[in-house]
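Hi V.,

Quick status before I head out on leave. The structure for the redesign project is tokenized and pasted below; the design run finished overnight.
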């Protein structure tokens, strides 16, 4: 006679959110090791209050977000320090975000335009009401004190240039 094997069960149930299709809630958590590989200098730069993009060694095209090869001519690029001041090219205000940003909603994402740089840099603007953000607004980079080695280690604030008296 074969012994019947049963896995242990609990009295916990599952909450059903829908029946066609079946929708249930399932919590999932994992620790994930991630390598920034060739982009590591960008994140190391943030710890030194620097923004690093890349510049084509052949045609001189400057990218605000680093890449190993030029998207214009295909040549290799080299690391290039970006200015810390720029202006808003465009923006959007987010009223919902992932779990990491829920406490900050609403927040405004901006594409920053730098002099001498051919592409734009995506970041957040802080310290200003979303209704007051404007295209062309002058912004400068700020860095969090304790780096987390994430793109959110840098953000931008509005500033007015000092006028000569």
């Amino acid at each position: 006679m074969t012994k019947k094997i049963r896995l242990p069960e609990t009295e916990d149930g599952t909450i059903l959110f829908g029946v066609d299709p079946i929708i249930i809630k399932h919590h999932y958590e994992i620790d994930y090791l991630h390598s920034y590989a060739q982009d590591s200098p960008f994140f190391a730069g943030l710890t030194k209050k620097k923004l690093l993009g890349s510049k084509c060694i052949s045609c001189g095209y400057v990218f605000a977000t680093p890449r190993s090869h030029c998207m214009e001519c295909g040549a290799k690029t080299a690391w290039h320090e970006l200015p810390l001041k720029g202006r808003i090219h465009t923006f959007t205000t987010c009223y919902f975000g992932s779990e990491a940003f829920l406490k900050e909603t609403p927040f405004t994402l901006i594409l920053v335009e730098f002099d001498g740089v051919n592409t734009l840099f995506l970041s957040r603007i802080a310290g200003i009401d979303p209704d007051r953000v404007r295209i062309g607004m002058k912004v400068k980079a700020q860095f969090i004190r304790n780096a987390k080695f994430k793109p959110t280690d840098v953000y931008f604030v509005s500033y007015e240039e000092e006028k000569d008296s």
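Above is the designed sequence. The chain has one domain: 38-158.

G. will cover questions while I'm gone.

Best,
W.
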